[in-house]
Batch of 2 targets.
Target 1
Amino acid sequence: MSAIDRHAEVCIIGAGPVGLALACLLMRAGVTCLVADRIPNAANHGRIDPRALALTPAARAILTECGAWSRLAPASIGEFQRMQVWDAGGTGKIEFDSADLCLSTLGYIVNQSDLEAALNAALTHAGLDVIAMADLERVDFGTNRIIAHGPDGCRLTARLLVGADGARSRVRELAGIGFAAHAYDQHAVACTAHTVLPHGNVARQRFLPTGPLAFLPLADPHACGIVWSTTPEQARRLQLQDEAAFNVQLAAAGGHVLGDIVACGPRMVFPLQRARAERYCRPRLALIGDAAHCVHPLAGQGANLGLLDAASLAEVLVESVRTGRDPGSMQTLRRYERWRRGENEMMIAALDGMHRLFGSGEPAVQRLRNAGLDLCDALDPVKHWFMARAMGRSGDLPAVALGSAVLR
């Protein structure tokens, strides 16, 4: 069968980590699927994505089931046992330690490029390659199937179409699903920085008046993934600065917590927003990841929420196929929407509240948040609840995220 006319149970548009994870889970469970993505822009082809993703133990469990975690080189996986958060505008601070929960780690740091390469390798091993499409031109929604059309004559037929194509989802647009977005007056600068002092496997986040700055420990003891949220104007200036000037500003913004910055890789800038789709599904269609919701990166939860979407949808679809039910029916898809929408809405609200609290320059609010950080740091039950939630160890989770079941 040619690449321009293919059929499967599920067609996934979007070959980022979330779409690839869903495809791997489905293929390993025996559910046939297709994955299509836009042909890379010539200017961006081969460019390394400098974004570092903070992944929870739940995300690792999902990626293990995908067959991707074992394909990550050990030298590409950072790990952190502790996390320190403090306010540049006061003395408040809080520290989380995995030992408090009798665990070996709080999470992992992996570059997005490395994760996508591992997932692509796992997908190829499962017998599937990503179909390159110039664009998604239209989708025909039939009673029993969908047909996705590319402008080059490509036709993909399936019982279910999944939009995993990001915040600017073409799938969501063609399905006529609204997307309520609120742009934060912030852009994030992402890069890899090398520091004089070793990071000690500690993730650090400092709240500045313009936004949070995170140092995420990579496998190299002197390398950190940087996510610096600031005003759009400052972000552009930071991106255009020469490396020496940027390194000086970054070290100062971090309070020289790791000494001077001695080297820095390419810098990428992207806008920040919170957003939610008005619904996650319609007959023959489901949305996952950023196509369904976007969150502020201050707690590193974006990729984790998307992977939980993928694992939850996979669990629902595999069960429906094995019991002879229609994977594209609303009866099947509403279960996924009810499951994930509430969990995602809770995280969106929590992160938006944190952004507002730490973004305020009002003296009274500054005093309140510093007192709150110190109080939370002193209350072990509160800290343990936050850690369990952030690590994906509480909430209504798919079985593979708990490592308690497999889909195969």
Target 2
Amino acid sequence: MYHDDTFVPSIALEGTKHDAEPIWVPASRLGGKDEPPMPLFWTVDSGDLKQGAVGDCWLIAAVSCLANYPEEIEALFFGHGAEAAPDGRYTVLLYDYHTRSTLPIVIDERVPCENLQPGYYVPGYEHLRGGVPCFAKPNGEMWPLLLEKAMAKMLGGYGSLAGGYEAVAFRALTGCTKQETWERRMGDDAWRRGELRDDSMNTFVFRSGDEVSADELWQRLEGWSNRNFLMSASVEASTGKLERRRPDGLIEGHAYSLLMTITVGHDLEGG
């Protein structure tokens, strides 16, 4: 089996925290030695993404959007079919803003898994007898684990995935360098537009006068949705704590996939 000696555990896990040193398990064998190898693809959809013990909701949200178009996910895995690669070697095509080009990121299929004490298990993943990944979790297919690993390798390790912007992930996944964000700060009525700098990981440029009302932004969102744009949404944390649940159920400091827009009509007489 292929072993990537350029992305060793000491590099891959830098900046992450674990109760016990993770064990590395081939993703195709997470079901256990007696089970058939887990396929690379099965039925690709937006429900395949499950975040693990690193703050990469920005990446998970973006990948979930792209998974609405299975052929685009499959195209990222250059030269691979639906089954696990016999040699455990995978090539993932990602856009690197440093070189301003799409690069083939070569990885092996080993992923870091929880090093559990005998008798312990991760609720909901008892069926994974081979190991439970520390980060992205599988839903019967390997591609989410390997795509996350390829992003981690390109950015310098899994720890580098903690905190980010969905626009950065969209750029890496599609190669589209024109990425924009719309934000409204607490107490403001207007939404302002920012563009991701194509030479930066996290810098947006906001220009004076590039603002719209909430109603106008919604009309634009509907138009983008009808044209199958990849979109996401996030809620800024109002306190120093991340991922605080608000009374309306939304999570502050968290990113969401925006898969469609729906306008709900109102009865003018009934209010």
